[in-house]
Amino acid sequence: xxxxxxxxxxxxxxxxxxxxxxxxxxxxxxxxxxxxxxxxxxxxxxxxxxxxxxxxxxxxxxxxxxxxxxxxxxxxx
Length: 77
Description:
The chain has 77 residues and is mainly alpha-helical.
């Protein structure tokens, strides 16, 4: 059942190019509510993921994880 739901979302957003979630700040549209929520953080300045080493903050966890490699690779030559 979940597969069908994900497939339906994929078809609507990718193939039919539907984007029902609109940003109230800039009118940009998104196919997924989560994408809109993440985008709104670019307007609000919210960055919920913080690097415990240097304090730099990120909107997406994956960006923090990528950033952490900078610290992990500093001691290696």
